[in-house]
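In response to reviewer comment 3 from the previous cycle, which asked for concrete evidence that the modeling workflow produces usable outputs, we include below a single protein chain processed end to end. The sequence was submitted unchanged, and the resulting structure tokens are shown without manual editing.
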Amino acid sequence: MQEKILEYLSHKQGGDDVHGIMDHFGVSDLKEVIIALNDLEDRDMIYRDEDDVYHDLIEYGIKEGTVIIRFNGTSFIEKEEGKIKDLNSALPLDTVWYKREKGGIRIIKVLKRYTKYITGNIYYYRHSFHFKVDDERYKGFKITNFKEFKLKDHSAVRCVITDFINKEMKIDMMIGMIDDPRINEKMIVARSGAPVAFSEAVLKEAKRLKLDIDDRKDLSDLLTITIDGDTAKDFDDAISIVRNDKGYVLYVHIADVSYYVKEGSVIDKSARERGTSIYYTDQVIPMLPEELSNDLCSLRPNEPRLTLTTEIHYDDKGEVLDTSFYPSLIRSDFRMTYSDVNKILEKDQELCDKYQVLVSMIADALALSDKLRAKRDQNGAISFDDDETEFVLSDGKVIDIKKRQRGRAELIIEDFMIAANVEVARYMHYLDLPMIYRDHDKPKEDKMMVLFDMLYALGYKIKGDHYTVYPKQLQDCLRYFKDTELESVISKLMLRAMAKAIYDDTCTGHFGLALSDYCHFTSPIRRYPDLMVHRMLRKYVFKGNYDEYDKDKRRMHDIAVKCSDTEKRAVQIERDIRDARCAEYMLEHIGEVYDGIISGVTGHGLYVKLANTVEGLVSIGDLDGYWVYDEKTMTLVSNDKIYRLGDKVRVEVVENFYDHQGVYFRIYGKGKRDSE
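The workflow returned the following structure tokens.
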């Protein structure tokens, strides 16, 4: 019955009510039809409107999306143009059904709540305590348990939402005092619900773990190094490179976390809930306790460590000749940093003398990396210009913001990690073993059509059409804008049009990397899916144990979904903290003037990016005159002026009247806020 109803509604313009559906099928049992309809509605397969008319989702124009609410109150659907006219209780990052209507976008239904907690400040005024939300996007909620907590003036608290419709919540956690320079970071983390402190049980179990060298391949005499950032402590990958008469042998050694963290253990359950380590400013919320992440599993120099090694043999052109995987024992010879390796590559004499034994291997690493990168480029891999923000802090306060520089050493490690990930994924896919892959779907046609129009307005025409897009087409576009002021803008446009990479139990390929097989294998200290990949390798490849094959096949999907969700949470935390820290810094520079480039144009204003990576909004209300937004060309137009992507502008930092978490500019010398 349900399949017949779905088929009927998919062709029934305007939908139908229960009696119309009964008449169509000639059914007299009202109870049977209502049960079928209720089940379809509960599973979000059809929609029932306020008049009790049932609709097919596609026929009715319902789409699924993520709600974005800006700090100035404007709201829209992620990667969609047009404002939301009725949020219908939706909050930032909620997953919703929405429908385009005259006058804007209407939220039909909230499918999944992203927000569970709200944070803010407690202050004492006129003999009673009051609450001020720290993020105005969550204003209007009322606390119902003020009397249950011993509150302090100027303290920060977290509240759990108890009623989304009536906007009610209860205090459930004291965060700290608002004069703490890191209080915004702490509130963002608390609001996300991400676990921070480890339980006593986890810490107790971690302390019991000891190095225990089992029967594995001994590579401790092989020249091996780690290359990481200056402040890194969790070294989960090391490399060795040997030049031979056929070409190169690359060894990618990854910390054997799965040897210590057994599935179902207290540590494992904690790691699955966390999903990933979270990095922000100079802080980290680790997936594993420090006894593992910074000690037992960290590939520290001159200490024996258990690893899983991917050994890849290449010819002189960088083509794979042979690959093998096995448990290994290594002893890293040097803990190298990106900055030092980059200097060695630049022939810094002092460092070349200091690390003379490594100079030849680093040169071989560069040569092999160049070949692997050239091959990926030839296949169409897309290299986005990803501007990373580097914060300079003093006593927890941001005193400067810079664009993080990436050198050749960073690219070498990236190339070698991708190589190992590909080989593991290809092998596991070929054998059809239970596995978690890293998939990146091809872009949707409607997104590509919008992107093609925008690029055409900027003077670039992509070869081909938006119906069949290949990575090479987008790669060529990025190359066209390479080293121009538009490079980062085009990267942002392209990223916005792309699908999101996810974890999945089926291998559908990675569009952005132009790869048919891909997984995450190289960071089990900080990513749970990598840990699961290690377990599947150990179980099926090293031990040949197929006893739970069907069970493992079934459960990989749920684990992959969980990993995608925790990754999304971590990314949002890192992004929110970055934005908040940028806003804190720029508030100290109100009235100062900067040169920037227009990185985004919307119906509510211009986004301007500064050289230090800070991005802020020039509200349309702060622009002189009457402006019209052209969605197709992504421009704002008035009688005598036009603003478009990539335009250079000079902006002045202005006070944020909505809150202190967004950065706001105005065009220098143009427009005034009403309150000034």
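Residues 671-676 have pLDDT under 50 and may be disordered. We consider this sufficient to address the reviewer's concern, and the full set will be provided in the supplementary archive.
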